[in-house]
Amino acid sequence: MKIAVIGATGMIGHHAAKAVVDEGHELTIIHRKSSNLDHVSDLTFRSAIADLNDLPSLSKALSDVDAVINCAGYYPTLPRPWQDEVETATALMANFYAACKQVKLHKIVYLGAAIALQKHPKGEPADAEMEYPSCPKNKNPYLQVKWALDTLAKEMARQDLPVVIGIPSMTFGEYDFGPTTGQLLTGIANETLPGFVKGNRNVIYAGDAGRALVLACEKGQVGERYLFTGSNISMHELAAKISTASEVPLPKTIPLLVATFVSKLQAVKYRLFGGDAPKISSTAIAVMSAGQFLNGDKAEKELGFKAEVSLDEGLERTLSWFKKMNYID
């Protein structure tokens, strides 16, 4: 099968692209003209230049593939009203789906986020069927964006587009340029993280997440949502593992209310005076407050997916890559 990956220069996208090749498919990487392809120099692929803002270029890039895995979903990075963020995110994704409608695709895999799932009312691990009954009351921009994109993906499936939603849990791995979720690891390892918020998490290695997205492309049922999970672990235990592996002290815990207050204060300062973006972003607050244990049984049963890399091994690989890239002193 000819499979395109959008967002292959990012962590999950890179691992998805690698899995496409490893599984014997033909890989096309759809990227902007400005993308740094040095980030994917280890892969064999056909290049197609397109932009999510440019419908003709997207349609052309998708015209010669059988399926696409979109790992380039928008997420907020700077303090802006949540309505503006949702408008930007849905416009970009609507453009993507419009391009998909112009070509005949076997499968469209949208990379979703676990924050789009409502917490289990009984505190049990949430599965792929958890739903908000309506727009979440919490107007955090990241939550609103990911809920809106999840809703849009399901609507596109109802309109006969072959959309499947794949949601990896909290993901760590190589090729996290930036870094993104790896900020937790680099912050602890460099002893620059002021503290962390207690809570529950599920953590998966990026290589397993990438392989899962390819399985969703191969076997996923249209309109279905699949959770790709690794290890359920408390934030305290996770931070302790990272600290031990990095041979540094464990950071202190910070109450969520305190972290939220600091985040809002930094956002106001940024809006009024500009300068550096807030160190504690609204996105980070959303992830901290929405964390929960997850249940990936559906992906195991229907797709045959099961994480192969242990939590400890995944953290070791990620820390080693960050050191190699000089993200860790």
Can you lay out the helices and strands and say which pair or pack?
Elements: E1 2-6, H1 11-22, E2 26-31, E3 46-49, H2 55-62, E4 67-70, H3 82-101, E5 107-111, H4 141-158, E6 163-168, E7 170-172, H5 183-189, E8 200-205, H6 206-219, E9 225-228, E10 231-234, H7 235-246, H8 256-273, H9 282-290, H10 297-303, H11 311-324
Parallel strand pairs: 1-2, 1-4, 2-3, 4-5, 5-6, 6-9, 7-8
Antiparallel strand pairs: 8-10
Spans of at least 5 consecutive residues whose pLDDT stays below 50 are none
- In whole angstroms, the N-to-C terminal distance is 42 Å
Q: Characterize the main sheet.
A: 7 strands, parallel
Overall mean confidence score, pLDDT: 93
How would you sum up this structure in a few lines?
With 329 residues, this protein is α/β, with parallel strands linked by helices.
Describe the protein.
With 329 residues, this protein is α/β, with parallel strands linked by helices. The protein has a domain at 2-182 and 200-230 and 291-305: Rossmann fold (3-Layer(aba) Sandwich), CATH 3.40.50.720. 42% of the residues lie in helices and 14% in strands. The protein is built from eleven helices and ten strands. The protein has helices at 11-22, 55-62, 82-101, 141-158, 183-189, 206-219, 235-246, 256-273, 282-290, 297-303, 311-324, and strands at residues 2-6, 26-31, 46-49, 67-70, 107-111, 163-168, 170-172, 200-205, 225-228, 231-234. It has a seven-stranded parallel beta sheet, sandwiched between helices. A three-stranded mixed beta sheet has the order 7-8-10. Helix 3 (82-101) links the parallel strand 4 and strand 5 (107-111). Helix 1 (11-22) packs across helix 6, helix 3 runs parallel beside helix 4 (141-158) and helix 7 crosses helix 11. The longest helix is centred in the N-terminal third of the chain and has 20 residues, at 82-101.
